[in-house]
Automatic annotation (TrEMBL):
The keyword Transit peptide does not apply. Belongs to the flagella basal body rod proteins family. It comes from Sporosarcina soli. This is Flagellar hook-basal body protein. It comes from the Bacteria. Its main location: other.
Length: 279
């Protein structure tokens, strides 16, 4: 009986966390470059149960021997093991702003061991001087003329340097080269993650490596191709209709577990107030 409480409770916690993840996806359905998260729900190892029985051996002394009679496997509950971002390309939308840039996936090699496809990101410098990565190309120019991310982080070029521009009158080629008139000012830095599933999510659509090391430049990785489109933004890859359906499914699963928990509670109440009553 008490084991049932823990099993049902673990199911409720897992569904609650999944609902919170889906709600965050829905809230960012219109955030440029946002990557939807996916939940991985797994069950705890099953417990194999047996009953202890005593058998009498037909001897003069009447020895008794204990044995095990198999009952079966019992589930010990479920848990949400992890959440992983989905790195597929979001749809492009036109903004006609010169500072908006969409990074479009081309050929991205898959990891030989896991088969997971790699991912590309804009290179950014955070307030601590470390590199972080994003697909959000909704850039602006700050007061000092530096190209910056919506979080205020500096956009880096292919050499890891901040990009300074005199004004917003510039063009960006499909290769990411920023042209001020006939002069090439810089090339927007793009990094490649061969194992994007190992990146740490920083919030606001930002990612960082586990050990703090910088990702390699995408142009130096064999087989990687990409293009950039000025005046466009990559939208979120959240499927709003699918997310809403998954939220309703998670809610119903939570509600079903809740009803089972209430049934257990009523059974325990009856055991205490009625079965154990002394007349």
């Amino acid at each position: 009986m008490f084991r049932g409480f823990y099993t049902v409770g673990s199911g409720m916690i897992a569904q609650q966390r999944k609902t919170e993840m889906l709600a965050n996806n829905m809230a960012n359905a219109n955030t440029p470059g946002f990557k939807a998260e996916q939940a991985s729900i797994r069950s705890f190892p099953e417990m194999y149960m047996s009953s202890i029985e005593t058998a009498r051996i037909p001897t003069a002394n009447g020895f008794q021997m204990k044995g095990l009679s198999p009952v079966g496997a019992v589930s010990t509950g479920v848990y949400m093991q992890e959440t992983l971002p989905l790195f597929i390309q979001g749809q492009l939308r036109e903004t006609e702003l010169t500072t908006d840039v969409a990074l479009i996936d081309g050929l991205l090699p898959a990891d030989a061991e896991t088969g997971i496809q790699g991912a590309i990101f804009f290179r950014l410098e955070n307030e601590g001087g470390n590199e972080v990565y994003s697909k959000n190309g909704n850039f602006t120019l700050d007061a000092n003329g530096f190209l910056t991310h919506p979080m205020g982080y500096y956009v880096l070029d292919s050499n890891g340097q901040r990009i300074a521009l005199p004004n917003d009158d510039f063009q960006i080629t499909p290769e990411g080269v920023i042209m001020a008139g006939e002069t090439a000012v810089a090339t927007i830095g793009v990094s490649f993650a061969g194992r994007p599933d190992t990146l740490l999510k920083q919030g606001n659509g930002l990612f960082a490596t586990e050990d703090g090391a910088n990702l390699p430049d995408a142009n130096g990785v064999a087989g990687v191709t990409y293009t950039m489109q000025q005046g466009y933004l990559e939208g979120s890859n959240v499927d709003a209709a699918r997310t809403m359906t998954d939220m309703l499914t998670a809610y119903r699963a939570f509600e079903a577990n809740q009803k089972i928990l209430q049934a257990y509670d009523r059974s325990m109440e009856k055991a205490v107030t009625e079965v154990g009553r002394v007349n």
